[in-house]
Amino acid sequence: MKKAFIAGLALLVMAGVASAAEIGGIAWTQSNLTILRAFTKVDIAKFIDSGLVKTVGSANGGDKTMATDIQEFTWADLAGDHHYELVIVLKSYTKNAANAMGIYHRESSGKIGEWWFQGMNIQLEGWPPPSYIPKAIQDLSGNGRKEIIIPSELGKAVGAHPRSTWPKVYQQKNWRFADASRDFASFYDKQILPEYDREIAQARKNAAGATQDTSLKAQDRLAALIMARDKVLRVIGRDPKAGEQQAREWIHGPNPRPLDAIIVFRDMGDHEEDLKAAMEEMRSESEAELKKVEAHKTEGKRTQAAKRAAAEKKLGITEGDFDRP
Fold first, then answer.
1. Whole-number mean pLDDT of the chain?
2. Is 168 buried (19+), middle (13-18) or exposed (0-12) by CB count in 10 A?
3. Are the CB atoms for 162 and 169 separated by under 8 Å?
């Protein structure tokens, strides 16, 4: 009982030290790890607003970052040198789930550098399993230095949803991060491609069994997964033309998806003729859609006129009644 009391008291003392200490004022080292881990989102928000780093701001439009703006954070030894970096993930400020991850690195001099990533629904533990977006911080090289894995959008978002999302790998050098995805084929082989195969197979089943109301959403999901898988195959050099034939089928096939075809061909590069064909298909679709809208408006006017005529007839009103002084 006495030991439990002493242990609890020690934790309270440590929590007091953590809340009293300024994050930027202590060394981010192994010896201070317990103190660092005792900081809360409130403390992290105060650090961001301290003037030591760039101001992030708040989702409510304010200049100061609030604790509620921080989705999650962790302290990670990214360089494998027993010095720790502060990794924070902000909540999505938009409807399409785009959010940001920040990495703060403290030098021995006390100077703090930072690096920011933009991603699609970044989560430190990855998307809930089963998923093709894994943990954000991993030692993929096996050398103690951590890589950063960011869910990245392929193509521009349309409406409230991204067209497709795939995991991009970044490596750090001198505390600057660069895309190194092509160097980690084994990572994609082990953690990513099997998940794509599983999810694509399930998406095909869902699309085949979809109703008229759910068909479009099911087809969108299937196309997004195919595009992301093919992107990975191109990046690691497994198949430089992955997705090319599918994209052409999306232009001329029975179920055209010209926008997705454009995204694929633009990402691949050097497909000018295919791009022109896809854009022409998009124009045709747009014109057809406009004609439907106009036809719907015309039909609506006709319906309204018929309803008005029926109502007037029921009331015994004639055209001559409107001509009377």
1. 86
2. buried
3. no
Residue 325 banded pLDDT, cuts 50, 70, 90: low
What's the rounded Cα separation, in Å, for the pair 109 and 310? 85
Closest CA to 235 of 203, 283, 192, 284: 192
- Domain residues of the chain, as ranges? 243-317
CB contact at 8 A, 90 and 102 = yes
Q: How far does CA 130 lie from the centroid of its chain?
A: 17
Q: What string of DSSP letters covers 129-158?
A: SS-S---SEE-SSSSSPPEEEEEEESS--B
Residue 126: Cβ within 10 Å count: 19
Question: Locate tokens 């969108």: which residue?
Answer: 220
> DSSP 3-state assignment of 299?
helix
Instruction: Note the pLDDT tens digit of each residue in 5-60.
Output: 444 444 444 444 444 358 999 999 999 999 999 999 999 999 999 999 998 999 88
Sheet containing 85-90, strands listed edge to edge, beginning at the edge strand earlier in sequence: 70-76, 85-90, 98-106, 112-120
Q: How many residues does the structure list for the chain?
A: 325
Measured CA to CA, the distance from residue 115 to residue 105 in angstroms comes to 9
CB neighbours (10 Å) of residue 324? 5
Counting Cβ atoms within 10 Å, is residue 242 exposed (0-12), middle (13-18) or buried (19+)? buried
User: What token pair was written down for 299?
Assistant: 């039909």
Q: What is the pLDDT of residues 93-103, one digit of tens each?
A: 776 789 999 99
Within a 10 A sphere around the Cβ of 306, how many other Cβ atoms? 10
Report which residue type is found at 98.
A
* Angle at 77 (CA atoms; ends 71, 82), nearest 5 degrees: 145
| Structure tokens, 4 | 């439990």
